[in-house]
Automatic annotation (TrEMBL):
This is ABC-type spermidine/putrescine transport system, permease component I. It comes from the Bacteria. The chain crosses the membrane at residues 26-46, 84-106, 118-140, 160-187, 208-237, 264-286. GO terms for cellular component: plasma membrane. It is a multi-pass membrane protein. GO terms for biological process: transmembrane transport. Keywords: Cell membrane, Membrane, Transmembrane, Transmembrane helix, Transport. It comes from Microvirga lotononidis. Residues 81-285 form the ABC transmembrane type-1 domain. The lineage of its organism: Bacteria, Pseudomonadati, Pseudomonadota, Alphaproteobacteria, Hyphomicrobiales. PROSITE patterns: ABC_TM1 (PS50928). Pfam families: BPD_transp_1. Gene3D superfamilies: MetI-like. CDD domains: TM_PBP2 (cd06261).
Amino acid sequence: MTAISAPAAPAAPSLALGRTGTATVLLLPIAIINTIGFILPVLNLARMSFNEALTGGGVREAFTLANWAGLFADSFYVELILNSITVSLGITLATLVVSYPIALYLHRSSGRWRTVLTVLVISPLLTSAVVRTYGWIALLSEQGPIASSIAAVGLTPPRLMFNTTGVVIGLTEILMPYMILSLLAGFGRLDPRVEEAAMTLGAPPAKTFWRVILPLTLPGIALGCLLCFVLAVSSFITPKLLGGGRVFLLATEIYDQAIVTLNWPLAATLSMLVLIIFGAALAAYARVLRAIE
Protein backbone atom coordinates (compact mmCIF):
# COMPACT_ATOMS: atom_id res chain seq x y z
CA MET A 1 0.00 0.00 0.00
CA THR A 2 1.46 3.27 -1.15
CA ALA A 3 1.26 6.21 1.26
CA ILE A 4 0.01 9.46 -0.27
CA SER A 5 1.97 12.43 1.00
CA ALA A 6 0.03 15.56 1.89
CA PRO A 7 0.69 18.62 -0.31
CA ALA A 8 3.21 21.01 1.17
CA ALA A 9 1.66 24.05 2.82
CA PRO A 10 2.49 27.32 1.06
CA ALA A 11 5.07 29.40 2.86
CA ALA A 12 3.77 32.38 4.80
CA PRO A 13 4.38 35.68 2.97
CA SER A 14 6.35 37.08 5.91
CA LEU A 15 8.70 34.08 5.88
CA ALA A 16 9.09 34.26 2.09
CA LEU A 17 10.04 37.96 2.30
CA GLY A 18 12.36 37.51 5.21
CA ARG A 19 12.71 39.90 8.11
CA THR A 20 14.24 42.70 6.07
CA GLY A 21 11.60 42.45 3.36
CA THR A 22 8.75 42.31 5.87
CA ALA A 23 10.10 45.35 7.69
CA THR A 24 10.45 47.20 4.40
CA VAL A 25 6.88 46.41 3.38
CA LEU A 26 5.51 47.47 6.75
CA LEU A 27 7.51 50.70 6.90
CA LEU A 28 7.06 51.71 3.26
CA PRO A 29 3.59 53.35 3.62
CA ILE A 30 4.59 55.54 6.57
CA ALA A 31 7.91 56.35 4.86
CA ILE A 32 6.04 57.55 1.75
CA ILE A 33 3.59 59.58 3.85
CA ASN A 34 6.38 61.19 5.86
CA THR A 35 8.35 61.97 2.72
CA ILE A 36 5.38 63.64 1.01
CA GLY A 37 3.86 65.27 4.08
CA PHE A 38 6.95 66.29 6.07
CA ILE A 39 10.37 65.91 4.47
CA LEU A 40 9.59 67.48 1.08
CA PRO A 41 7.73 70.47 2.62
CA VAL A 42 10.59 71.04 5.05
CA LEU A 43 13.13 70.94 2.23
CA ASN A 44 10.98 73.39 0.27
CA LEU A 45 10.78 75.59 3.38
CA ALA A 46 14.55 75.49 3.77
CA ARG A 47 15.01 76.47 0.13
CA MET A 48 12.47 79.28 0.49
CA SER A 49 14.45 80.75 3.40
CA PHE A 50 17.32 81.54 0.99
CA ASN A 51 15.11 83.33 -1.57
CA GLU A 52 14.83 87.09 -1.83
CA ALA A 53 11.63 88.85 -0.84
CA LEU A 54 10.34 91.56 -3.15
CA THR A 55 7.95 94.37 -2.40
CA GLY A 56 4.29 93.53 -2.82
CA GLY A 57 4.69 89.91 -1.74
CA GLY A 58 6.89 88.78 -4.61
CA VAL A 59 9.64 86.19 -4.26
CA ARG A 60 12.80 86.05 -6.37
CA GLU A 61 14.62 82.76 -6.80
CA ALA A 62 18.06 83.32 -5.32
CA PHE A 63 20.52 81.96 -2.81
CA THR A 64 21.11 84.68 -0.27
CA LEU A 65 21.87 84.60 3.44
CA ALA A 66 20.26 87.99 3.92
CA ASN A 67 17.20 86.56 5.66
CA TRP A 68 19.29 84.61 8.19
CA ALA A 69 21.75 87.45 8.72
CA GLY A 70 18.96 90.00 9.12
CA LEU A 71 17.24 87.74 11.64
CA PHE A 72 20.12 87.86 14.09
CA ALA A 73 21.11 91.45 13.31
CA ASP A 74 17.67 92.83 14.15
CA SER A 75 17.17 93.30 17.89
CA PHE A 76 13.42 92.77 17.49
CA TYR A 77 13.86 89.22 16.22
CA VAL A 78 16.58 88.42 18.77
CA GLU A 79 14.19 89.53 21.52
CA LEU A 80 11.38 87.62 19.83
CA ILE A 81 13.41 84.39 19.85
CA LEU A 82 14.50 84.80 23.47
CA ASN A 83 10.98 85.77 24.56
CA SER A 84 9.47 82.74 22.80
CA ILE A 85 11.93 80.35 24.46
CA THR A 86 11.55 81.99 27.88
CA VAL A 87 7.74 82.04 27.78
CA SER A 88 7.63 78.43 26.55
CA LEU A 89 9.97 77.31 29.34
CA GLY A 90 7.81 79.15 31.88
CA ILE A 91 4.65 77.52 30.52
CA THR A 92 6.35 74.11 30.63
CA LEU A 93 7.43 74.62 34.24
CA ALA A 94 3.97 75.85 35.31
CA THR A 95 2.33 72.89 33.56
CA LEU A 96 4.69 70.47 35.31
CA VAL A 97 4.04 71.98 38.75
CA VAL A 98 0.24 71.80 38.48
CA SER A 99 0.17 68.44 36.66
CA TYR A 100 2.63 66.43 38.74
CA PRO A 101 0.43 66.02 41.86
CA ILE A 102 -2.54 65.04 39.69
CA ALA A 103 -0.50 62.45 37.78
CA LEU A 104 0.97 61.02 40.99
CA TYR A 105 -2.45 60.73 42.61
CA LEU A 106 -3.86 59.16 39.44
CA HIS A 107 -0.97 56.67 39.33
CA ARG A 108 -1.68 55.57 42.91
CA SER A 109 -5.45 55.35 42.52
CA SER A 110 -7.19 52.16 41.43
CA GLY A 111 -10.53 50.73 40.42
CA ARG A 112 -13.45 52.81 39.28
CA TRP A 113 -12.04 56.00 40.78
CA ARG A 114 -8.95 55.68 38.56
CA THR A 115 -11.19 55.29 35.51
CA VAL A 116 -13.18 58.40 36.43
CA LEU A 117 -10.02 60.44 36.96
CA THR A 118 -8.53 59.25 33.68
CA VAL A 119 -11.66 60.30 31.80
CA LEU A 120 -11.55 63.71 33.50
CA VAL A 121 -7.92 64.15 32.45
CA ILE A 122 -8.51 63.14 28.85
CA SER A 123 -11.86 64.90 28.35
CA PRO A 124 -10.34 68.39 27.67
CA LEU A 125 -8.61 66.89 24.63
CA LEU A 126 -12.03 66.22 23.13
CA THR A 127 -12.64 69.97 22.95
CA SER A 128 -10.90 72.21 20.45
CA ALA A 129 -8.15 74.48 21.75
CA VAL A 130 -9.98 77.37 20.10
CA VAL A 131 -13.11 76.73 22.18
CA ARG A 132 -11.08 76.40 25.37
CA THR A 133 -9.24 79.62 24.58
CA TYR A 134 -12.55 81.48 24.14
CA GLY A 135 -13.57 80.02 27.48
CA TRP A 136 -10.49 81.57 29.06
CA ILE A 137 -11.31 84.89 27.39
CA ALA A 138 -14.68 84.83 29.18
CA LEU A 139 -12.99 83.99 32.50
CA LEU A 140 -10.07 86.41 32.30
CA SER A 141 -11.82 89.47 30.84
CA GLU A 142 -12.23 92.62 32.90
CA GLN A 143 -15.91 91.78 33.44
CA GLY A 144 -15.22 88.09 34.01
CA PRO A 145 -15.81 86.14 37.22
CA ILE A 146 -12.15 86.23 38.31
CA ALA A 147 -11.80 90.02 38.06
CA SER A 148 -15.26 90.49 39.62
CA SER A 149 -14.39 88.22 42.56
CA ILE A 150 -11.15 90.13 43.22
CA ALA A 151 -12.95 93.49 42.97
CA ALA A 152 -15.68 92.24 45.33
CA VAL A 153 -13.18 91.95 48.19
CA GLY A 154 -11.93 95.51 47.65
CA LEU A 155 -8.78 94.73 45.64
CA THR A 156 -7.81 96.01 42.23
CA PRO A 157 -7.93 93.09 39.79
CA PRO A 158 -4.75 92.65 37.75
CA ARG A 159 -4.87 92.65 34.00
CA LEU A 160 -5.16 89.01 32.96
CA MET A 161 -5.74 89.36 29.21
CA PHE A 162 -3.86 90.72 26.23
CA ASN A 163 -0.53 90.15 27.93
CA THR A 164 1.91 87.34 28.69
CA THR A 165 0.03 86.40 31.87
CA GLY A 166 -3.09 85.46 29.93
CA VAL A 167 -1.06 83.45 27.40
CA VAL A 168 0.72 81.54 30.19
CA ILE A 169 -2.55 80.78 32.01
CA GLY A 170 -4.36 79.62 28.89
CA LEU A 171 -1.56 77.47 27.51
CA THR A 172 -0.81 75.94 30.91
CA GLU A 173 -4.38 74.65 31.16
CA ILE A 174 -4.45 73.52 27.53
CA LEU A 175 -1.18 71.57 27.87
CA MET A 176 -2.01 69.91 31.19
CA PRO A 177 -3.52 66.72 29.67
CA TYR A 178 -0.38 66.17 27.58
CA MET A 179 1.85 66.61 30.62
CA ILE A 180 -0.27 64.30 32.82
CA LEU A 181 -0.35 61.52 30.21
CA SER A 182 3.41 61.85 29.65
CA LEU A 183 4.06 61.67 33.39
CA LEU A 184 1.88 58.58 33.71
CA ALA A 185 3.78 56.94 30.84
CA GLY A 186 7.06 57.58 32.68
CA PHE A 187 5.88 56.45 36.09
CA GLY A 188 6.48 52.79 35.25
CA ARG A 189 9.65 52.67 37.38
CA LEU A 190 7.79 53.97 40.44
CA ASP A 191 7.31 50.87 42.60
CA PRO A 192 5.16 51.44 45.73
CA ARG A 193 7.26 48.85 47.60
CA VAL A 194 10.31 51.11 47.30
CA GLU A 195 8.39 53.97 48.91
CA GLU A 196 7.18 51.65 51.66
CA ALA A 197 10.75 50.48 52.27
CA ALA A 198 11.97 54.07 52.60
CA MET A 199 9.15 54.91 55.02
CA THR A 200 9.82 51.73 57.00
CA LEU A 201 13.48 52.71 57.39
CA GLY A 202 12.39 55.98 58.96
CA ALA A 203 12.55 58.43 56.06
CA PRO A 204 10.03 61.28 56.45
CA PRO A 205 7.57 61.89 53.58
CA ALA A 206 9.48 64.90 52.24
CA LYS A 207 12.78 63.00 52.14
CA THR A 208 11.06 60.00 50.56
CA PHE A 209 9.74 62.25 47.84
CA TRP A 210 13.06 63.98 47.08
CA ARG A 211 15.28 60.89 47.37
CA VAL A 212 12.99 58.14 46.04
CA ILE A 213 9.86 59.30 44.20
CA LEU A 214 11.27 62.24 42.26
CA PRO A 215 14.34 60.39 40.85
CA LEU A 216 12.19 57.46 39.76
CA THR A 217 9.76 59.76 37.94
CA LEU A 218 12.40 61.79 36.10
CA PRO A 219 11.86 59.95 32.77
CA GLY A 220 8.20 61.00 32.80
CA ILE A 221 9.14 64.56 33.75
CA ALA A 222 11.64 64.77 30.89
CA LEU A 223 9.10 63.40 28.39
CA GLY A 224 6.34 65.73 29.55
CA CYS A 225 8.63 68.78 29.51
CA LEU A 226 9.80 67.99 25.99
CA LEU A 227 6.27 67.56 24.68
CA CYS A 228 4.87 70.67 26.37
CA PHE A 229 7.84 72.85 25.38
CA VAL A 230 7.51 71.87 21.72
CA LEU A 231 3.74 72.47 21.79
CA ALA A 232 4.18 75.83 23.57
CA VAL A 233 6.77 77.08 21.08
CA SER A 234 4.59 76.13 18.11
CA SER A 235 1.22 77.19 19.53
CA PHE A 236 -0.50 79.97 17.62
CA ILE A 237 -4.19 80.39 18.30
CA THR A 238 -3.98 80.80 22.09
CA PRO A 239 -1.18 83.43 22.03
CA LYS A 240 -3.00 85.19 19.21
CA LEU A 241 -6.33 85.40 21.06
CA LEU A 242 -5.21 85.80 24.67
CA GLY A 243 -2.24 87.97 23.70
CA GLY A 244 -4.45 90.30 21.69
CA GLY A 245 -1.63 91.09 19.25
CA ARG A 246 0.55 92.45 22.08
CA VAL A 247 2.47 89.24 22.81
CA PHE A 248 4.96 88.53 20.06
CA LEU A 249 6.03 84.91 19.76
CA LEU A 250 7.60 82.94 16.93
CA ALA A 251 4.36 81.28 15.80
CA THR A 252 2.41 84.55 15.68
CA GLU A 253 5.24 86.31 13.85
CA ILE A 254 5.43 83.52 11.25
CA TYR A 255 1.70 84.01 10.61
CA ASP A 256 2.07 87.77 10.29
CA GLN A 257 5.01 87.50 7.89
CA ALA A 258 3.32 84.85 5.74
CA ILE A 259 -0.26 86.19 5.68
CA VAL A 260 -0.13 89.90 6.52
CA THR A 261 3.26 91.12 5.25
CA LEU A 262 3.56 88.43 2.55
CA ASN A 263 7.27 88.07 3.26
CA TRP A 264 7.44 84.34 2.63
CA PRO A 265 11.25 83.99 2.74
CA LEU A 266 11.35 85.55 6.21
CA ALA A 267 8.42 83.39 7.34
CA ALA A 268 10.28 80.33 6.04
CA THR A 269 13.44 81.43 7.88
CA LEU A 270 11.50 81.78 11.14
CA SER A 271 9.88 78.38 10.56
CA MET A 272 13.26 76.74 10.05
CA LEU A 273 14.43 78.42 13.25
CA VAL A 274 11.52 76.80 15.11
CA LEU A 275 12.61 73.41 13.73
CA ILE A 276 16.17 74.09 14.94
CA ILE A 277 14.78 74.83 18.42
CA PHE A 278 12.85 71.55 18.29
CA GLY A 279 16.05 69.72 17.37
CA ALA A 280 17.89 71.32 20.27
CA ALA A 281 15.07 70.31 22.62
CA LEU A 282 15.24 66.70 21.37
CA ALA A 283 19.03 66.64 21.84
CA ALA A 284 18.63 67.97 25.39
CA TYR A 285 15.95 65.32 26.06
CA ALA A 286 18.24 62.51 24.83
CA ARG A 287 21.07 63.81 26.98
CA VAL A 288 18.84 63.97 30.05
CA LEU A 289 17.68 60.39 29.47
CA ARG A 290 21.28 59.16 29.20
CA ALA A 291 22.13 60.98 32.43
CA ILE A 292 19.13 59.40 34.20
CA GLU A 293 20.01 55.89 33.06
